[in-house]
UniProtKB/TrEMBL annotation:
<dbReference type="Pfam" id="PF00589">
    <property type="entry name" value="Phage_integrase"/>
</dbReference>
<dbReference type="InterPro" id="IPR011010">
    <property type="entry name" value="DNA_brk_join_enz"/>
</dbReference>
<dbReference type="InterPro" id="IPR013762">
    <property type="entry name" value="Integrase-like_cat_sf"/>
</dbReference>
<dbReference type="GO" id="GO:0015074">
    <property type="term" value="P:DNA integration"/>
</dbReference>
<keyword id="KW-1029">Fimbrium biogenesis</keyword>
<keyword id="KW-0233">DNA recombination</keyword>
<dbReference type="GO" id="GO:0006310">
    <property type="term" value="P:DNA recombination"/>
</dbReference>
<dbReference type="GO" id="GO:0003677">
    <property type="term" value="F:DNA binding"/>
</dbReference>
<comment type="similarity">
    <text>Belongs to the 'phage' integrase family.</text>
</comment>
<feature type="domain" description="Tyr recombinase">
    <location>
        <begin position="20"/>
        <end position="195"/>
    </location>
</feature>
<keyword id="KW-0804">Transcription</keyword>
<keyword id="KW-0229">DNA integration</keyword>
<dbReference type="InterPro" id="IPR002104">
    <property type="entry name" value="Integrase_catalytic"/>
</dbReference>
<keyword id="KW-0805">Transcription regulation</keyword>
<dbReference type="InterPro" id="IPR050090">
    <property type="entry name" value="Tyrosine_recombinase_XerCD"/>
</dbReference>
<protein>
    <submittedName>
        <fullName>Tyrosine-type recombinase/integrase</fullName>
    </submittedName>
</protein>
<keyword id="KW-0614">Plasmid</keyword>
């Protein structure tokens, strides 16, 4: 008996992307993760790292590549250099994030160019970021969390606030709108007021 092999195209994968498991955190989980990060050994840094990864939808490699010069505290702006051929843009920095940034920079006694450094005065590694987020998630009691979930959480949070696809696409630096579409297609706010 011959088995029929089903081959999915890229369009099928994009259309079915919403069928994968939930790979983002909701607002309550983000708050718990941030609170737990504050309680760690390097709470000021870890809290800011997680906050910025969530607020700006940063990939790990984008977060560890951030430099002090990318943060304009006077104008409350952050230059986000996107990787993977993404659209690099300047993002606003909200008040609580600006205060956390100032607190972190005031706690440092070095002139190193990187925004996030280890206690050995080196830029954080991907493994260190994985560990920081995993340890905070464990303290928060929210199960396993990987860094890319923060990027997805950003996309879903923006979609649930009613922002359109194009704005979210530009904010996250996506060149292809198909990468952004699953945030808006599964946003609960789309269905508000139907009944």
């Amino acid at each position: 008996m011959l088995r029929r092999q089903i081959v999915k195209s890229d369009d099928d994968h994009a259309a079915d992307a919403h069928e994968r498991g939930r790979d983002y955190l909701g607002p309550v989980q983000i708050d718990r993760l941030l609170a737990a990060a504050r309680k760690g050994r390097h709470g000021i840094r870890d809290h800011l790292l997680i906050l910025m990864m969530f607020r700006h939808g940063l990939r790990v490699s984008e977060a560890i590549a951030l430099r002090r010069a990318d943060a304009d505290l006077a104008q409350a702006r952050l230059w986000v250099a996107r990787l993977k051929n993404g659209l690099s843009v300047e993002h606003p920095v909200a008040g609580d994030e600006l205060r956390a940034l100032r607190r972190w920079l005031a706690a440092r006694d070095d002139a190193l160019p990187w925004l996030f450094v280890s206690e050995r005065r080196q830029p954080l590694t991907r493994q260190a970021v994985n560990y920081i987020i995993g340890a905070a998630a464990k303290r928060a009691g929210i199960g396993p969390v990987h860094p890319h979930m923060l990027r997805h959480s950003c996309g879903f949070a923006l979609a649930n606030r009613g922002y359109d696809l194009r704005l979210i696409q530009d904010y996250l630096g996506h060149r292809d709108p198909r990468h952004t579409a699953h945030y808006t297609r599964t946003a609960a706010s789309r269905f508000d007021g139907l009944w």
